Amino acid sequence: MTELRLFEHNPGPAVHSDGYVETPDGFAIRFAVFRTAEHPARGTVFLLQGRNETIEKYFETISDFMRSGFDVTAFDWRGQGRSTRFFSHRDAGYVESFDQYAIDMETVFRRVVLPDCRPPYFVVAHSMGALAALYAAPIMVNRIHRMVLTAPFLGLPVSDVSRWWMHAGLRSLCFLGLGDVYVAGGPVKRMRRPFESNRVTSDAHRYARNISIPIRFPELALGGPSAAWMNAAMDAIETVGDPDHLAKTVIPTLVFIAGDDRIVSNDAIRVLTDNLRSASVLTIDGAQHEILQERDIFREQFFAAFRAFAPGTGQTILESLSD
């Protein structure tokens, strides 16, 4: 059992099954499956978290999906949460390539979702998880019914020139064997911003709950991104924007833009979705980066659109929601 970390301000929904699955390259990935009490079930949400997130952070959101009639499968990516870390000090956010995240997805989907979860299957992915979903989308065709992406990490809010120099510098650090150095944020203790200076949510209660999770359970904590992680992310961004990759990304996809996002580039999201025929876009005005951790007024807009889109009810409902 994974022993999900619970406390009074973050109660967890009932767990149907949980544990670890091992990837072909030797990483133990922690997962948990939650089953709705609604009958009949409307399918399964395959939840892909962002960087430095864990299953525990999504207890409230998982409960909301369950009340909407969906089962949920969630897992911790390699290198974070309680899945295998890359380093003994367990602090730096690290990955060598998004191919590794694709392996995590495939392993959990094949060994947990397919044998134990009710179809159809819907990906819901946030930020880095959304980038990973787009990266793996061509190999998930005919298995994933629809994808819902919130604030996908498709670029930083910087100029094209700055982005080019940044990527060149990251590649140089990795070439020199310095891929594990921090390039933002630093160690865990430097990652805890007061609410007034946070850039992810305008909901003080949810923010306090979320930052208290790694404080109460240090084994869940993660520091800032490393040079290798950031380089892998920028390589993945180039891949998902490639015309050949876009042509193979045919899973119907609903993309949510957070109108007040200061973490990722909304312009980059619009450029990619303009070129992705399978994608529709909704902007939640006023929401910050973590839409699913935002105030109720923003979360309710997400769930209204999700419930309309997930069963495959058609483009006409999406058009009415965006009017």
Mean pLDDT: 91
Secondary-structure element string: EEEHEHEHEHHHHEHEHH
Runs with pLDDT <50, length 5+?
314-318
| Main sheet: strand order | 1-2-4-3-5-6-7-8
Q: Given the structure, what is the number of helices?
A: 10
* Main sheet properties: 8 strands, mixed
Distance N to C terminus:
46 Å
Structural category is: alpha/beta
Radius of gyration (CA) equals 18 Å
The number of distinct β-strands equals 8
The percent range for strand residues is: 5-15%
Shape: globular
* Helical residues, percent: 25-40%
Task: Please describe what this structure looks like.
The longest helix has 19 residues, at 98-116. Residues 314-318 have low confidence and may be disordered. This protein is 37% helix and 14% strand. α2 crosses α3, α3 packs across α6 (227-240) and α4 (160-175) crosses α6. It starts with 16 loop residues before the first strand and ends with a helix. The chain has helices at residues 59-67, 98-116, 128-140, 160-175, 204-216, 227-240, 243-248, 266-274, 296-309, 315-322, and strands spanning 17-22, 28-34, 44-48, 71-75, 121-126, 146-150, 253-258, 279-284. With 323 residues, the chain is of the alpha/beta class. Strands 1-2-4-3-5-6-7-8 form an 8-stranded mixed beta sheet, sandwiched between helices. It is built from 10 helices and 8 strands. β1 (17-22) and β2 form a beta hairpin.
